[in-house]
Write a structure and sequence with these properties.
With 662 residues, the chain is of the alpha+beta class. 59% of the residues lie in helices and 11% in strands.
């Protein structure tokens, strides 16, 4: 039974929409140019654990060629060569490599864990023509879990007959145990979140006071000083005490009114700006460009405000009342993050934090707490009123005294003082308010940044549980094995009755995707085409897999004979989108887009050709094509001839292996 498993991308004629995508900054597959042979081997093992045996074999063979060769290396070398295939499915080149590996092994009599694992693999190879499975199973059971699990994962269908049935059942048991292991449900979704962009806040704008405002304020101050000085001279010239005391009281009242009035003006202006943030937004003449950063941020805010509705609140009411602040927060993020290297998905965490904060303040009834904070204090109001009363009362004594002393000059000075006081007070109120705005904004931004930094660190901590690419591949392999087992149970087939099974995998409908550098795309939802090849023909099952939840449902079953397979082909350039087509003699062709463009989301240090090969390797598509193309060309006869060609060389290999393990 064969296990080529075809992974990768897209659907046939159905619509595919990418909800979100992420390319992580992990260095999981990073290989330095001057990597040592041991480092090459370690990266090769990572590719093997992530179900990319072709790339794993390349790196392991490079390590061996550079002189790094141990029983651990030989163990993984054999797994990379044999992974997911039966011995009789090996081609001439594979059998030559198998013979080469066996020739490099002297005798396997050590007690190390990797030596024991290598011995067990060789025992499987030597058991091709034996019906006695007891020794094979016994030796496998005696291995340590790490070696035993790797053998079951990769060599569960290596042999045919009773041994295959036992290994397959053990492999499926391991898949059922591992399908939901490692808190899969909560961790898988973390893989599809991009690395978050660090928190930012709007920079504080420096105080901006027009030159005209300064000139107006200074001119008014000079005019008021001259007028007040002339009035003081006239009052003193009159020689009476009461006008002098009234003048001093009036001056003190003016000072008190200016101090209180400046604070009152600052608070009212700041309250006006805050209210503007919460006011319903005006309709924009032109919306954000479709597909642009701003439009994606719009969708994030619409999504999370629609999802995070406060308790005991109608959704429509919540959305209507928060339209203003939603627009304000959206505009802020678009302004501070609008650049090519920041994707909207990288600030989704910040949108969630901001929306959650608005919801919490709504529930705590503190959403408009700024009104209380910016309300003019009673002391400030009292200062303004008392100052105004004192200034008016004093003026009632001062103005007649000045006018009687100098009717023309005194009256002119009073009028000038009043006019310049009104003009100057307004100008100075605006200047003081603008200068006080800067430290107030700085304090507000500092608090915002601290809150966002805390949310960022919390999200970073949560993302630290993100699964590795190997874990994603392992969970997907568990799903596939369980689906194959369920299909075989449905058709009442034993593993040894299945010549080969293969998957064509594509993202289903609306999906999320993510990958690590130099790794294949992983998807949140898959559409799977499972092929079971038996002596009677092909059993095809269409399956929808929700990878995040680990649940699936079959959508269609199709059975056909080998002689109805007219053609199998892949259309498209290797580094671009490719489509798999299976054409039957009778019926519509089956088309599935099986690879995406390897230039989509490519990083500066990545090679499109290498990414394309990795994607095909992870999918197992080449193994699937090898089987289906052979059937399309020769029908059922191809299976017999493939077995005959393999058997001619396998007898030599099994004899050599038997001598190594004694």
């Amino acid at each position: 039974m064969t296990t080529p498993t075809t992974t990768n991308v897209a659907q046939g004629d159905a619509h595919v929409g990418v909800q979100a995508q992420a390319i992580h900054g992990d260095v999981y597959y990073q290989l330095p140019p001057d990597a040592s042979p041991k480092e090459r081997f370690r990266i090769g093992v990572k590719y093997l654990d992530a179900r990319m045996p072709g790339r794993a074999r390349e790196l392991i063979e490079e390590a061996v060629a550079r002189g790094y060769e141990t029983d651990e290396v030989r163990f993984h070398w054999l797994l990379a060569l044999l992974s997911g295939r039966t011995l009789r499915q090996l081609g001439n080149e594979d059998l030559t490599t198998l013979s080469t590996i066996c020739d490099r092994i002297t005798r396997v009599h050590g007690r190390g864990e990797w030596t024991a694992g290598l011995r067990s693999v060789l025992r499987l190879l030597s058991s091709l023509d034996t019906a006695d499975t007891e020794l094979v199973v016994k030796e496998l059971d005696e291995l340590r879990p790490r070696q035993r699990d790797k053998i079951l994962d990769h060599l569960g269908v290596l042999l045919e007959g009773p041994v295959e049935d036992q290994l397959w059942h053990r492999s499926v048991e391991r898949a059922r145990a591992g399908q939901k292991a490692g808190d899969r449900r909560n961790r898988v979704r973390l893989f599809f979140h991009p690395s978050p962009a660090p928190p930012r806040v709007r920079p504080v704008q420096p105080a901006s006071i027009p030159v005209g405002e300064w000139l107006r304020a200074l001119a008014a101050a000079v005019a008021f000083a001259l007028a007040a000085g002339n009035i003081a001279r006239l009052v003193l010239q009159r020689g009476e005490l009461s006008p002098v005391l009234a003048y001093l009281a009036s001056a003190a009242g003016v000072v008190a009114f200016v101090v209180g009035g400046a604070d009152r003006h600052f608070r009212r202006e700041r309250l006006r700006l805050k209210e503007a943030e919460y006011a319903p937004p005006t309709q924009r003449k032109k919306g954000s460009p479709a597909g642009g950063f701003a439009r994606r941020v719009d969708r994030l805010f619409d999504t999370y405000f629609g999802r995070y509705v406060p308790r005991d609140t109608a959704r429509s009411h919540w959305l209507a009342q928060t339209a203003g602040i939603r627009r304000h927060l959206r505009d802020e993020l678009v302004e501070i993050y609008r650049e090519q290297r920041v994707d909207a998905g990288e600030i989704a965490w910040l949108v969630r934090h901001l929306v959650g904060d608005v919801r919490q303040r709504w529930e705590n009834e503190t959403l408009t707490a700024y009104r209380t904070r910016l309300r003019t204090p009673l002391s400030t109001t009292a200062l303004c009123v008392i100052g105004l009363v004192a200034a008016a009362a004093g003026a009632a004594w001062v103005v007649p005294a000045a006018a009687l002393t100098a009717p023309v000059g005194g009256t002119a000075s009073v009028l000038l003082a009043v006019a310049s006081a009104v003009i100057g007070a307004r100008a100075w109120f605006r200047i003081v308010a603008e200068r006080r705005r800067v430290p107030a904004d700085e304090a507000e931004r500092a608090q915002q940044l601290a809150e966002r930094q805390a949310a960022y660190e919390h999200w970073q901590k949560k993302l630290s549980r993100k699964p590795s690419d190997a874990e994603m591949a392992s969970w997907l392999e568990c799903d596939r094995k369980i689906l194959v087992d369920e299909a075989m149970r449905h058709y009442r087939l034993r593993p040894s009755q299945v010549i080969a099974h293969a998957f064509i995998e594509a993202p289903a409908g609306s999906y999320k995707r993510a990958r690590v550098p130099r790794g294949p795309w992983r998807y949140s939802r898959y559409r799977l085409l499972l092929f079971l090849l038996t002596d009677d023909g092909v059993r095809q099952v269409d399956i929808d897999l929700d990878f995040e939840e680990g649940v699936s449902r079959g959508t269609q079953r199709l059975n056909y004979r080998f002689d109805t397979v007219a053609a199998v082909r892949i259309d498209g350039v290797a580094t671009q989108q490719q489509t798999f087509e299976l054409r039957l003699v009778n019926g519509d062709p089956i088309r599935v887009r099986v690879t995406e463009s390897s230039t989509d989301g490519i990083q500066p240090d990545e090679d499109p050709g290498a990414l394309s090969r990795v994607a095909l390797d992870a999918s197992g598509l080449l193994h699937t094509l090898h089987v289906l193309e052979g059937i399309a060309a020769e029908g059922k006869q191809w299976i017999r001839q493939q077995r005959r060609r393999a058997d001619e060389r396998l007898s030599e290999v099994t004899a050599t292996v038997a001598g190594l393990i004694g």
